[in-house]
Model the fold of this input.
Amino acid sequence: MRTLIIAPHAASDAVMTQPLTVMLRRVASGARITVLVFSDHAPIFLAMNDVDEVIELPRQTGRLPLLAMTRVVRSLRQRRFDQVLVLDDSLQAAILAWSARIPIRRGLGYRSRFGLINHPHGKGQLLKIDPRRSIAERFAHLAFDPSKPLPIRLPNPSLTRRKHLDRSVMARLGLVDAKPILALCIGIEGKPSRRWPARRWAALISLAADAWPELAPVLLGSTEDRSFATEVAALSGRRCLNLCGRHSLTELMAVLSQAEAVVTHDIEPMHLAAAYGRPMVAIFGPTDPRLNPPRSPLAKVEWLHHACSPCNQAQCRFGHGDCLSEISAEQVFDSLRRQFQSISRDIR
Done:
């Protein structure tokens, strides 16, 4: 069975694709799995053991221009796939699957797309998404009959460390032969309501430095987070490496895979760190950790569940942000320390 997966749009959803590849292998051990993905998310699929091939597309505002799409369709036709699993719910993804003349075209059931998806998991209408089912479960179900429940327990997403690549990446970032890393993912991905206050991050760094002086705090985020990271480092009074805006996705994955511990907002790096099995604490405020939590036994969620939370808003409508600001650094630090104790591992 030659299977094509058209990857989802978001990096966090891309991580949630990995259990699906495991299920496809269990259904048909000789299956060949190819993933079609925009190039900026390709490193995630390159770190999946069950993916045989990754076809990269140039990212241009999330859409393919007509000429590029024509070339992709021609290439896919030549490969003669038996089925395609469309995880991207865009109309262009459905058109791409149909144009490639792939006989079995499965989709999540968002829409039948006028017959473009001929095996939708649903009745061709918008489905009511069960909040009790995670994105990973919905993806994995595409490997089975949609009228029946998942026949086996779903594994957590798992990414493979690429040691040779990771070493070269760490060298470029100046982290070779350095202290073990405490990765602090302070980015918010354009959603200010998810930002844990700078004074809390700074206090956490101080607590970690006192307890584990061998750890080197590394601040991770986008260019827009760089000034916030500078403020955090200044408030902590400790030496921190500010990599905000200086790392690609490949470099971020290398740092997270090598980190001794991770603390993060509810953002995409949270799922990457969980897939690498790193001890971690995820700080939730306006979003609901019951819907899409970090899927790892070494992940601990901190969430106060205030009356106004979850609101899923980019800005706090009350202006106080208490759902995050009232989570103390001591609370997060204690959770992180318990994660280390649960695996009987001390940082030396």
The mean pLDDT is 88. The chain has two domains: 2-143, 163-342.
